[in-house]
Amino acid sequence: MPKNPNIKKVVVIGSGPIVIGQAAEFDYAGTQACRALKEEGIYVILINSNPATIMTDKNIADQVYIEPLTPEIVKKVIAKEKPDSILPTLGGQAALNIAMELEESGFLRQHNVRLIGTSAKTIKKAEDRDEFKRTMEKIGEPIAPSKVVTNVEDGLDFVKEIGYPAVLRPAYTLGGSGGGIAENEEKFKEILENGLRLSRVGQVLVEGCIAGWKEIEYEVMRDANGTGICVCNMENLDPVGVHTGDSIVVAPSQTLADKEYQMLRSSALNIISELKITGGCNVQFALNPTSFEYCVIEVNPRVSRSSALASKATGYPIAKVSAKIALGYHLDEIKNAITGKTYASFEPALDYCVVKIPRLPFDKFIKASRKLTTQMKATGEVMSICTNFEGALMKALRSLEQHVNCLIYEDMNERPLEEIRKELHRVDDRRIFVVAEAVRRGITLEEIQNIVKMEKRLAEEELTKELIFEAKRLEFPDEVIAKITGKTEQEIHDLRLEYDIHPAYKMVDTCAAEFEASTPYYYSCYDGECEVDATRTRKKVMVLGSGPIRIGQGIEFDYCSVHSTWALSKSGYETIIVNNNPETVSTDFDIADKLYFEPLTAEDVEAIVNLEKPDGAVVQFGGQTAIKLTEDLLKMGVPILGTSAENVDAAEDRELFDEILEKCCIPRPAGKTVFTCEEAL
Description:
By secondary structure, the chain is an alpha/beta fold. Helix 5 packs across helix 6 (129-138) and helix 14 crosses helix 15 (449-460).
């Protein structure tokens, strides 16, 4: 079915400020949707309040309103602009809640504005806990024993039937806000009261706890014609009980047998058909690890952080396709932008492994509880791609920029065995390192033994060409190999080059190389042939991104990176972006001439420099992450464009900066750089 000719003027609602649970993924989704709508000749009106986003740029929409995201403001904009449609499924929970309020109050009907994308009825069926429960029961999809309550008394009555621990999930909230797992009555009342307060409709689902089951996600798409596809299947390393935004996630799933995979895929497609989803949707399942028993946890009838991850993991632009579906197109009419040959009805195939690790804020909030539960705490995330799970995990660890570049963590090896056993039961952000230490101590765990075995081999065996190659295949950085073997990083670096061991770059193409891709989107590995065409037709500039979103470094640097890339392209340069954040616009496949989805470390960047030989690098738009690489890039022979390395150093180095202030007779508070507590005192 072609585009609906009655849709000419569309309001797109953004997601407002970056908050825990709602980050840059909605800038990415909103920007992609606005560009897709404009591509179809639609007049786009955007409402958002976040100045750090690309979507609030005047060239992304025809009219941009930088205003508070409240129903009253949206009403005023609609009354002034007189749009015919509103698209609310790309601005997170904030946009969805506003649109539902305007729909339920009758305001949209009064002003002849239609809700496009997923309908209000569908949103209600998925978001309203009572409606969702009834819908699942109707189609025979299993859910955990549960009851929707609107007051504390009813909740306390029901929990007596199912017992503790109990899971609480408020309706219409973001990132599990107001929810949690209650172990006792006191905690139950506390969470329930908060959940009822935060829910837009004053509803909380109280359900039996199935924490410990596998958590599996399916990112699915459906059009108005009823065609449904599975874009990506993902497995959470952490079991049910940890919000998927706080979990390490792997795509495709690593531990499902084909029967389990097909069973859950069929269920996901069955659910979106019954809900009549039009566009992208995320379905979350709990799967009993010892049987084929499963439960539906929840459905997000909008794009989410998982959608951004699935888009970057597969190369399938979920937000763009959702926007086109909202205009009336069917999946078999929307071209795949990466291959240019297949259509959006063609399910992506992955011939590689993707690992996502959340960026948690405990380095800033030292006294906060590190415990992970059903309420999201992550500020952002990193993603990595490799030909094997171990390599993808290692790349993701060093992308986090938390002074960790492998599974060896702080003083873990000095702790008594009993303490390690005890720590295994503690669900927090350090659990993966505890698991690795448990494997080192002989506690049998299959999943990550290969990495620990390699550590042991490096420590005990002669450093042969074969051993170095195998360590690099599992993505052990030179620095870690040096630390384990007692050599210097430079020695390992030189030995590796002597043995001609260097990464190759493979392409993300959505179709496992069945069709040729026209969009250069690359990841590194040590066990494949290089698919990069590094032929030089014009001067090349490398733009370094800012890595994961964290407190103190948000999407403002993504905004800067994208704009510098666009400006360089306009000036005739070939542009290369290096970044590892799946939520951002900079890692969209069509922003630069080439995208390298890689950790932002000296070693990883050097491999790209050796291949591409850029004429210059831009570091001043990638925040502290990129600036830290200035000295390394100069050693690689890459000129720094913009503010010189010396002048960056003069501003960053406290002592040099102090000398400049002294020389210029500029007054400042008395101060001195110190390195110990004693010096400070």
